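Sequence design from tokenized structure. All designs in this work follow the same two-part layout: the structure record, then the generated sequence. An example of the structure record is given first.
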């Protein structure tokens, strides 16, 4: 069909409405590229898919594909042995959750007569529920790994908490001491360069033992790490390094599990994108 005919039919407005009905960016892209066909078999197939999707919508309600994103770049990185970040793993878990929901949707009715042109698409979905649950167990948010992700991580974080308590108790004792009262600009504990410090007046620089990490704009205040807490600060920094190393190990382990199921996950992405497109048409 030529451009003039499409313009007269206001085909672009039809496509715009169709795009609004898709839930994923990939489904929307398929909607945008949909063009009239002269292939009778293709027309018959697509019309049957649309009719069957509409029938399912009437019988079982809507099926959401919201949250489905293109994880192809992440899957390609797995091929070369890369580890995925927490956000990437959560996107994969979301895809598997959508696949699980779609699978359950297809089983809403036990009537064998409900088999239609979409049945094989639903049946080919592989939710990989154990993998999805393992990712969700370990990763609470893009920037938050669960304490329960591993016994080692839980133990490290327990040590961090205990060390923080000891460090703050020591610093509180220092800022509360009458002997230090005149030397301090404020009775507060602050952080400089990843180290806990207290604000000391510049004129007491030689009287207050510790390491200077920063100073105020006017130079009247020095942010000093008291010698009494240097070892605790060092211990805290070492524990933070161990925590990061353990988090990277956990993410690498989850990435290996995803890599093992990569083909199934790719197939899920393809099937869900196609279903999103079909249900948008319906």
């Amino acid at each position: 069909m030529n451009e003039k005919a499409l313009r007269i039919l206001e085909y672009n407005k039809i496509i715009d409405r169709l795009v609004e009905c898709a839930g994923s960016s990939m489904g929307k892209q398929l909607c945008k590229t949909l063009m009239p066909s002269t292939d009778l078999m293709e027309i018959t197939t697509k019309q049957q898919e649309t009719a069957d999707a509409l029938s399912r919508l009437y019988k079982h309600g809507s099926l959401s594909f919201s949250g489905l994103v293109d994880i192809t770049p992440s899957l390609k990185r797995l091929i070369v042995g890369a580890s995925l970040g927490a956000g990437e793993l959560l996107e994969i878990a979301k895809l598997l959750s959508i696949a699980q929901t779609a699978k359950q949707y297809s089983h809403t009715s036990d009537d064998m007569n409900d088999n239609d042109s979409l049945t094989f698409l639903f049946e080919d979905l592989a939710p990989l529920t154990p993998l999805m649950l393992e990712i969700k167990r370990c990763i609470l948010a893009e920037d938050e790994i669960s304490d329960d992700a591993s016994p080692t991580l839980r133990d490290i974080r327990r040590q961090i908490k205990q060390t923080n308590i000891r460090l703050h108790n020591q610093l509180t004792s220092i800022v509360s001491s009458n002997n230090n009262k005149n030397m301090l600009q404020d009775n507060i504990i602050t952080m400089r360069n990843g180290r806990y410090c207290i604000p000391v007046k510049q004129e007491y620089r030689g009287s207050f033992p510790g390491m200077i990490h920063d100073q105020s704009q006017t130079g009247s205040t020095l942010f000093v790490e008291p010698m009494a807490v240097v070892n605790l600060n060092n211990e805290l920094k070492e524990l933070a390094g161990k925590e990061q190393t353990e988090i990277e190990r956990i993410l690498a382990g989850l990435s290996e599990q995803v890599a093992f199921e990569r083909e199934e996950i790719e197939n899920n992405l393809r099937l869900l994108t196609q279903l999103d497109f079909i249900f948008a048409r319906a």
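Residues 3-128+261-281 form a domain with the MutS, DNA mismatch repair protein; Chain A, domain 3 fold (CATH 1.10.1420). We note this feature because it recurs in several other targets discussed in the main text.
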